[in-house]
Write a structure and sequence with these properties.
about 700 residues, alpha+beta, Growth Hormone, Chain: A, Deoxyribonuclease I, Chain A, 8-stranded mixed beta sheet, 22 helices
Length: about 700
């Protein structure tokens, strides 16, 4: 019975964390599409449902056996919401599942003996680490939300565990409580006698102290979600340009998990230190170090922060479960919501009211969080750290083994040169796409479908904009790592996710020799990212510039950004490919500055029906140009070009005519046939097809005979 109870708790808490991490991205989808507050944000109110336990009859109902089973049923519904027919229904059911999950915490963490409560807190923490470890295997995607098969698998385990628990509870003797450790059962009568000797009534604790502990717990939850919601996020926080960019997510994940696990040992061997202000000061320094430092120094601070996060949780063991759930969880979730909304405001400041005061100020948020950690330090009459259930050690071991297995399984998938480096091969293709964070236009995950699409294009270089999903409200999905391993391409992700941009990543079948990450001048509008990278294409160095410039309404921003990027291009000694989201019409001020001061050429100056995406080039010969409809995977089409590197960069002739019949050009020039043939005008069906009078192939004008 003890084994079943523990296994059931592990499964239930695993699903709790899956639901908790899964709601934010679903809510975010709607303002993402509208670029404004939509009203769907109100669904976050489900996280405040513990407030209803302030009513004593409702609390007793929630903490009853029947109430606990009903909340588990609600959690199961939340998990299977992934099978809903529309994303609106998925959001509604998922929100209901999160409400049930919060009530489940009210039932499990705030009833029973001291040992029972602290044991549940241990299980809650350890299953979070188990979920993080399982995401190593699934390449950063939570298994419950990876695809329909894994979703059904997780739901089936929860359903089976709940049914088995109910069946055995009905058939077992009611006077026995579940096993608390591996050796004994506790009678209700004995436990009740023990509890009368302790102040278990939550109302016996000062309300202000409970509020302080709840606020601290809310910040601990947000810290774990923000920086450690996926084990590779820390490397994306501290990444810089290559070749010394810091550890990759693949390499760093086992290290981050080890730091989290080791942090739980600090209070055991250094009890006084773990509750001292010195520990708080060092943890605060590590937090700011992670934020301000890049590459390996920043990552080292992040590992210290991981240990500090676990110390915070273990310090909460003696405090959080011994208050009233309405006060503790109500205040915790309120603080969590304030912090996550503040983080949204630091990035989306250009689209929200009051954003001018929060833009790019995550340092304010870090300072506030560190101050809220203070109530978790100081002396306490309990020693919950020493009453850790035996199962916790096994869960920690299982988490570490899972992460190691995932790392071993993925080692062969790490990108290697997918192209021949034969110097005689001088042609390559480049593609730009605004990726929409890996969600399609209906709000469903699109990773596998987009990977299949990109594979069909056979592009050698891919620039994906709006691609930083390493944020808590975007699911902490590492799109660069996932696509890199699935397409066997090198990846450069930048700037860092802590730098308040929407993301920019570069995928290449050829080795990336070096790169620099840029935060473009943005005095008024949203912060614009750029990557300038040098690639080794069969022994030839080619510079690639990938960028997402500011909105068209921010005129000064775009002017300054254009000048900055044009200088990058003009100063380059190598051939250049510019893959940019420019938000300007052909012939506009910014367009002309790129083509004149930046010394760039447009891939097709005759294409006047463009606004956002552009492909420019210099010291290359253009061979082809194609526009592929988005097919509902994003709100923006794909643009693709093919080039040849001249043998003599100072003496070559570019192709000056175009041909629309692929049969009239060499086979190596042709774009894939998977997207149809030359098509005029927009292609509106939700399929991927050439459109806008492409594909075009460029040829040299024949001399008259």
């Amino acid at each position: 019975m003890w084994l079943l109870d523990t296994s059931h708790d592990i499964v239930s808490y695993y699903c709790f964390w899956s639901l908790f991490y899964g709601l934010g991205p679903m809510i975010w989808f709607y303002p993402l599409n509208e670029l404004a507050i939509t009203g769907y944000e109100v669904f976050v109110a489900v996280w405040l449902i513990p407030l209803i336990t302030a009513v004593s009859p409702l609390r007793r109902c929630v903490q009853s056996t029947v109430g606990t089973v009903l909340t588990e049923g609600g959690m199961l519904a939340g998990i299977v919401s992934f099978q809903a027919p529309t994303t609106w229904w998925r959001l509604a059911i998922l929100a209901g599942g999160n409400a049930a999950a919060m009530l489940y915490l009210c039932a499990k963490l705030f009833s029973g003996s001291e040992r029972t409560r602290t044991g549940q807190m241990w299980l809650l923490m350890s299953t979070n680490y188990l979920l993080l470890a399982s995401r190593v295997i699934t390449k950063s995607i939570a298994p419950a939300w990876l695809d329909h098969r894994t979703n059904i698998a997780v739901a089936s385990v929860l359903a089976g565990s709940t049914c088995a628990k109910v069946f055995l509870a009905v058939s077992s003797r009611p006077e026995k409580e579940r096993v608390l450790d591996g050796n004994a059962r506790i009678d209700y009568s004995t436990e009740k006698a023990k509890e009368t000797t302790r102040p278990q009534d939550p109302t016996s604790y000062p309300i202000l102290r409970q509020l302080g502990h709840g606020i601290s717990f809310g910040s601990v939850l947000y810290l774990l979600h923000w920086v450690f919601g996926e084990l590779g996020v820390l490397s994306r926080w501290t990444v810089s340009g290559g070749p010394h960019s810091g550890p990759t997510p693949f390499f760093s994940s086992p290290l981050v998990l080890s730091a989290l696990l080791m942090g739980t040992c600090v209070p055991v061997y250094f009890k006084r230190f773990s509750r001292s202000l010195l520990c708080w000061f060092l943890g605060t320094a590590a937090f700011f170090g992670t934020y301000y430092l890049d590459a390996w120094p920043g990552f080292a601070c992040g590992l210290c922060l991981a240990g500090f996060a676990s110390v915070l949780w273990t310090n909460a063991l003696d405090r959080v479960p011994f208050g009233h759930p309405a006060v503790i969880l109500g205040s915790a979730m309120l603080v969590y919501l304030v912090e996550i909304f503040f983080h949204v405001w630091t990035v989306a400041y250009n689209f929200v009211p009051g954003g001018i005061y929060t833009r790019e100020h995550s340092d304010y948020l870090i300072g506030f969080m560190c101050l809220t950690f203070l109530p978790l330090f100081g002396k306490t009459s309990r020693n919950a750290i020493f009453s850790r259930p035996k199962s916790i050690k096994w869960i920690f071991q299982a988490a570490l083994i899972t992460a190691i297995i995932g790392t071993i399984l993925r080692a062969p998938l790490q990108p290697r040169s997918g192209k021949s480096l034969d110097p005689s091969i001088r042609s390559f293709s480049a593609l730009i796409w605004t990726y929409h964070f890996g969600y399609d236009n209906k709000g469903w995950p699109s990773l596998q479908r987009s990977a299949d699409l990109l594979k069909k294009t056979d592009a050698d270089i891919i620039a994906l904009l709006e691609s930083d999903a390493s944020k808590p409200y975007l699911g902490h999905n590492d799109l660069g790592m996932w696509l890199s391993e699935n397409l066997n391409m090198y990846v450069d992700f930048g700037p860092a996710t802590k730098d308040h941009t929407w993301g920019n990543l570069l995928l290449s079948k050829y080795p990336i020799v070096s790169s620099t990450h840029h935060l473009l001048p943005s005095p008024h509008g949203e912060l614009a990212p750029a990557i300038s990278a040098t690639l080794n294409i069969s022994g030839n160095l080619v510079d690639v510039i990938s960028t997402h410039m500011g909105n068209d309404r921010d005129v000064l921003d775009r002017e300054m950004q254009t000048k900055y990027l044009a200088r990058l291009s003009a100063y380059s000694k190598n051939p250049v490919v510019f893959l940019g989201y420019v938000t300007s019409a052909p012939g506009s001020r910014d367009y002309n500055y790129f083509t004149k001061q930046g010394m760039l050429r447009d891939i097709d100056p005759t294409d006047k029906n463009r606004w956002c995406e552009y492909i420019f080039y210099r010291k290359l010969v253009r061979e082809g140009y194609a526009r592929i409809s988005h097919g509902g995977l994003s709100d923006t089409e794909l643009q693709m070009a093919r080039f040849t590197i001249p043998k003599n960069l100072s003496d070559y002739k570019d192709n000056d005519q175009y041909e629309t019949d692929s049969a009239q050009v060499e086979q190596w020039k042709r774009f894939p046939v998977d997207f149809g043939q030359y098509t005029k005008g927009h292609y509106y069906p939700w399929e991927h097809n050439y459109h806008m009078s492409t594909p075009k192939y460029f040829v040299t004008k024949k001399s008259p005979s």
